[in-house]
Design brief:
By secondary structure, the protein is of the alpha+beta class. The chain is 38% helix and 30% strand. Helix 1 runs antiparallel to helix 3. The radius of gyration is 14 Å and the shape is globular.
Length: 151
């Protein structure tokens, strides 16, 4: 992952497939590639013990930062992720954002680096400009604020 540019993919989820399993595989690979990184969660609606707890926390605050191991636990637990926006952050730099919508649509946005397609498996490349919103543009300031609190 050396080329710095945006890329975006929509995962093709088969009817018999659980989307959390696909996202788990991607997050696990990214955790190994970026061991010192954190996930900035700005939106989640999930069932399950950990997912529901995180949903409640985000009902009262703008975002929360969790480790990759915590994120992997949420993906493995019994329950479902309905909506999610999670950005992998290393040293205040956005790397990849995972979007889950309506419990069945998964989009992966490579913010600064080309995504390794081998970890995505069955996917469709989409225009990364579809993800350019004011919310995305202001996320860097949120990330900087989170890292100031951590440091």
């Amino acid at each position: 992952m050396n080329n710095l540019q945006k890329s975006a993919f929509t995962l093709v989820i088969q009817p018999e497939e659980k989307l959390e399993n696909r996202v788990y595989f991607i997050v696990d690979d990214l955790a190994k590639t970026y061991p010192e990184s954190q996930w900035l969660i700005t939106e989640i609606d999930a069932t399950g013990l950990l997912g529901n707890s995180l949903t409640s926390i985000l009902n009262n605050q703008e975002n929360i930062t969790i480790s990759s191991s915590d994120f992997l636990q949420i993906l493995q637990e019994e329950g479902q992720i309905i909506d999610l926006e999670a950005t992998l952050v290393k040293n205040t730099q956005e790397i990849i954002t995972v979007f889950i919508r309506d419990g069945y649509s998964v989009d992966i946005l490579g913010v600064t680096e080309l995504l390794p397609v081998h970890i995505l498996n069955d996917c469709i490349e989409v225009d990364p400009n579809l993800f350019d919103t004011q919310k995305t543009e202001t996320s860097q300031s949120k990330i900087n604020l989170v890292y100031q609190k951590i440091a």
